Amino acid sequence: MTTKRSRTLAAACVFVATAALATAGCSKSETTDKATGDTGAGAQTVAPTTAAAGAGCTLQSYGATKLDLKNIVVGFSQSEKEANPFRIAETQSIKDEAAKLGVKKLLTTNAQSQLPKQISDIQDMLSQGAQLLIVAPLNSDGLQPALQAAAAKHVPVITIDRKLNATACKDYVAFLGSNFVEQGKRAADAMIKVTGGKGKVAILLGASGNNVTTDRTKGFVDQLKAKAPGLEIVAQQTGEFARDKGQQVMEQLIQSKPDITAVYAENDEMGLGAVTALKGANKKPGKDIKIVSIDGTRNAVQALVNGDYNAVIESNPRFGPLAFATAQKFFGGESIPENVIISDREYDDSNAKASLGGAY
Question: Which residues fall within 8 angstroms of residue 77, CB to CB, at 6 or more apart?
């Protein structure tokens, strides 16, 4: 779907981010594999539907104070350990953009996939004087004590990559991220294409307790029911968004469901774990068993190039430019939509090699 873009466009995407929320994550790749290609192709772009994505939130309605990013302390709460390319790229994007904008001080924490720790991390950053919080929530529920602590100090909270089951413009300013139901639908469309609409599919589910897993499952399942009744879902088991768990689940499924012909992994790490399991069982991933996943990591796109994969739907983690552009607009008195939705790309065997440089 994508083509190489010029470095001029890569630079322009940053300007647009600051000016109009049509932002770019022009940070470097976060893998050790030095693929060629234009990394500017990894830019985040806000979807046109964002203009109607919920009621707007302003400084006045939120009860916050006008501030200059260069004179404040910003806190970033990461949810999971940075062993996953998505998390590595996301954190680095926040750090890079803060440095580029000259933010006075950036505090960073990592909850290590522990909800109590994320709550205490946020509370600690507030104690250290954080005046803006950017939060990648571990779960959609459970952060209320941290949100209440921020509200008590009138500190704006911007959430990225996972939605909260909370009240916009009260508990948080806005959610920045993908349309996860649409990602699931697009993964289903890709699966229908590579299988011809027939076969037996196993779903490697993400972690429970967040909207990403719920929505990616719903989008995929509903789309198969509507468009490909010949593709039967024969197993749904969580791999917790982890490569080792994905491999373990796939190893079990090879034994319990030997007639599986396709795998839908709700992130690339689980999909890559499935590849390892299939090869260990002397099966040919991408051929004997079709694989479609979501994220757009460098390793998954490389697997496409190698023929071990069939399609990848992107979920872009480069939130730094968008998060800070949103904060600047908010502190400048502008109204921020409840949901700022980004557009995601898609990789298949027709564009994987040319697009590898834009993966993360």
Answer: 109, 111, 118, 121, 122, 125, 133, 134, 135, 136
Say which amino acid occupies 231: L
CB within 8 A of 84, min separation 6: which ones? 241, 242, 269
How do 132-135 and 157-160 pair as beta strands? parallel
In order along its 360 residues, the chain shows pLDDT tens digits of 333 333 333 333 333 333 333 333 333 333 333 333 333 457 788 887 654 455 689 999 999 999 999 999 999 999 999 988 999 999 999 999 999 999 999 999 999 999 999 999 999 999 999 999 999 999 999 999 999 999 999 999 999 999 999 999 999 999 999 999 999 999 999 999 999 999 999 999 999 999 999 999 999 999 999 999 999 999 999 999 999 999 999 999 999 999 999 999 999 999 999 999 999 999 999 999 999 999 999 999 999 999 999 999 999 999 999 999 999 999 999 999 999 999 999 999 999 999 999 899
φ, ψ at 159 (rounded to 5°) = -105, 145
Positions of E strands within the chain? 45-46, 56-57, 73-78, 105-110, 132-135, 157-160, 174-177, 199-205, 231-238, 262-265, 290-295, 311-314, 336-337, 339-343, 346-348
Q: What is the DSSP string of 145-181?
A: HHHHHHHHTT--EEEESS--SS-BTTTBSEEEE--HH
- Alpha-carbon distances of 136 from 64, 75, 91, 96, rounded to whole Å: 21, 11, 10, 17
**AA letter at 42:** G
* pTM beyond 0.90: no
- Give the closest residue to 344 by CA, choosing from 97, 138, 42: 42
Q: In the chain, what's the furthest Cα-to-Cα distance?
A: 62
